[in-house]
Specification:
384 residues; alpha+beta; 2 domains; 11 helices; disordered C terminus; transmembrane
Length: 384
């Protein structure tokens, strides 16, 4: 059962540099959509649609579907994330896969919230997109991302269906950095994090540890900042390719009602990413996107994120909410409609409209209440 409002995950962070400001212990608030979005953007989603087709969409649907199946929000005075009876009945190997999946999600949330990391994604997805190869036998971190204050972070995600053992904690403390450099410079922070449960009915916890030395076999990761940003947003393009997008306020969204998920991207961000993907106009993409996001002011913490994405998880209503014969995108959650309606109280005929070819133009989008004038780019960046 998922209640409205966040649950809190107890985090234990060790050996992080003093300047990062990461608290040793904290209750980290987590919404259902935070977990769903984290699994969507960090997955190994296939990059080449012509090669993998709908498999890329099924892959992220599979990852996100484990959340309502195997997790619930406890109703204790301090709301926690616990496993469902179904999750506790899984066999050991299945429990291990679930814990690792949750470990990936919490690794992203920790990076974004505690370390101010943006464009956090799986190393394998970036490598496969741009044909990067690593020497046989070389281990490497799972994820990398860009610190908002400059430099990069690398991270490795782990998950345990039981308690965090002293052996694993010691291994995490002694673990060496597996990425030596990114763009020729050492990562500012490298850490390993592990999701774990002290008992079958105990809440989920996260332990994160930052080792200080590099492995002699650590790899160099050549990253092009523009291609990094393109790879980060590509899963959203893939989702829109397999589900009819709609214009919702000033976002372009797609609803997957059977899954209870709605995802989207700020329209001008999507425009620029599509130009890079379809016309190979990647030069300057990172700076253009950061310029757009600097002017963007999220109005609602629950569903709108600072990278210009939207994610909503509707897992609090009966499973039969979908009427037969309707396409997913036509059934967006009521609370999402209400949120955008409240942002634009002056518009009487507020509605979701389908996106037609060439319609992704900011002049056709209803400005949300609270938006500052001139947030959209001028000149060439607006041209289709």
């Amino acid at each position: 059962m998922f209640f409205n409002g966040p649950a809190h995950v107890r985090t234990d962070a060790r050996l992080f540099p003093v300047g990062t400001g990461v608290p040793v212990e904290q209750d980290l608030p987590v919404q259902p959509e935070d977990l769903a979005r984290a699994l969507f953007i960090t997955g190994r989603a296939p990059y080449d649609q012509t090669k993998h087709g709908r498999s890329s969409a099924y892959e992220w649907c599979h990852r996100v579907a484990v959340l309502p199946a195997y997790l619930s929000w406890s109703d204790d005075p301090v709301r926690r994330i616990t496993r469902t009876d179904l999750a506790r009945e899984l066999d050991p190997s299945e429990k291990g896969m679930l814990s690792y999946t949750l470990g990936q999600a919490m690794c992203q949330i920790f990076a974004e919230r505690q370390l101010s990391v943006r464009f956090f994604m799986h190393v394998a997805r970036y490598a496969s997109a741009y044909n990067l190869t690593f020497a046989p036998g070389r281990s490497r971190a799972d994820f990398f991302g860009e610190l908002t204050l400059g430099g990069y972070v690398v991270a490795e995600a782990k998950g345990r269906s039981g308690p965090l053992t002293n052996k694993l904690r010691e291994a995490m403390e002694e673990q060496k950095r597996t990425v030596k450099t990114i763009k020729g410079k050492a990562p500012k922070i490298a850490y390993a994090s592990a999701v774990h449960f002290s008992s079958p009915h105990s809440p989920m916890r996260l332990t994160a540890i930052a080792p200080d030395t590099a492995d002699p076999r650590a790899v160099d990761l050549p990253v092009d900042p523009d291609l990094h940003v393109l790879a980060y947003y590509t899963p959203f393009l893939d989702a829109f390719a397999h589900q009819e997008p709609l214009v919702l306020g000033d976002y372009v969204v797609a609803g997957f009602a059977a899954l209870g998920v709605t995802l989207g991207v700020l329209a001008p961000v999507l425009q620029r990413v599509e130009r890079a993907a379809r016309r190979n106009e990647t030069a300057g993409l990172r700076d253009d996107i950061l310029g757009l996001l600097a002017r963007h002011r999220p109005r609602q913490e629950r569903t709108l994120y600072t990278d210009g994405t939207l994610f909503a998880a509707d897992w609090t209503v009966p499973e039969d909410r979908r009427r037969p014969g309707r396409r997913d995108s036509e059934v967006l959650p009521d609370f999402l409609h209400e949120a955008f309606r409240s942002m634009n109280e002056e518009e009487d005929d507020w509605r979701v409209v389908s996106v037609e070819e060439g319609d992704l133009d900011w002049r056709d989008l209803s400005p949300a209440r609270g938006y500052m004038p001139g947030i959209f780019p001028q000149g060439d960046l607006l041209k289709g």
